[in-house]
Here is the input.
Amino acid sequence: MTGYPDVRSVLADSAGYSNDLVGRLGASAAGKHHLGGLGLCDPPEHTRLRHLLVPEFTGRRLQDLQPLIEGIVDDALDDLSRLGDAGEPVDLVEHLARPVAARTISMMLGLDEDEHAVLHRLSSQRFDLAGSGGGPFGPISDAIGHLLEVVRRQRAHPAPGLIGRLLRDHGTELTDTQIAGLADGLWTGGLESTTSALALGGYLLGTDSVAAHLLRDDDRKGVDRWVEELLRYTSVVQVAFPRVALADAELGGERVLAGDLVVCSLSAANRDAKFVDDAAQFLPDGRPRTHLAFGHGPHRCIGAELARLELRTTLPRLAVRFPQLRAVAPIPRTDGERLSFIYGLPAVRVLLEDGGPAHSSRHAGRP
Ligand code: HEM
Here is the structure.
């Protein structure tokens, strides 16, 4: 599905479309561990598990995280500054976006550095539709295997953070595998998508001086609007979790049969010309434009407010600290990344100070 209204109606309809892809494709596809996680299950199980996580994402909890996230961002900006001191290009993915996203979600979950380093390696293969061996399900089950060890360790000694709290408050009603699956969904959602959104935000700052200027204005509403437009325009989660149709239906003028796989393109929906004016333009100071970048309905991104907090904290700080920031090259792409569910970026190389050739564009296409 590519049209905004069709995508929205599929995502809203958990009675008509199932997210339990693994159950419906057969357990063997899941590898040796049972897959958990919110994105791959249906009500009533989905509703029950989601309710356990919602308290972790309340305004109050996010408020407590804000100063910690500011500290994480400032540390990353200090590193960036040291690396870019010699006038050499630096990579925003490696030195800003990924550390901010990884340290934030690790802190939230209560993982230590070693634990998240292993997960990081496994997650880069996660969304590769062309992946060899078990395809995308191989790395998913390996990551859950690793998180299962973390949960087992924490059952004996709960750490501060979400895994420890789930074990303390719901340890009798949830199995270790369920907690590992929930943690896996959060860690992956928190890492890859937010890394890409942060890095693409940095790229837009480095190629569009008008847009960069808006972020330096100290106007909170303006920053919020900028970030919403970034989310719409880049649509880093390119497709929603695939759904299986539970009944015959008419969708977008096509006949869908029960059992068919339905894939919703969020990037296409967010640029549906029938629904969004000037959809291919990045217009961060224009009228706010609605989007489906976090999905819609019961599976809508549970980490949306955390992601917004990371973006709203990082991008203005980057713009103020490095007013000369300029991208030195277009973003390189590889076949593997083009096939990914997530609009991943191998690198975003920028110069922090004046001097040297810059890459510039007003954005009529996707970066
Ligand atoms: C810019 C950053 C992010 C984007 C664009 C994004 C996008 C999305 C989208 C589109 C979905 C819904 C997919 C569907 O309905 O099939 C989703 C679900 C989800 N996201 Fe995010 N996400 C982001 C950040 C995060 C963060 C920071 C976390 C965790 C801390 C997270 C955790 C999740 C989880 C657990 C789900 C599954 C929810 C459910 O099925 O009930 N995401 N995300």
Notes: Confidence is low (pLDDT under 50) at residues 27-34, 126-137.
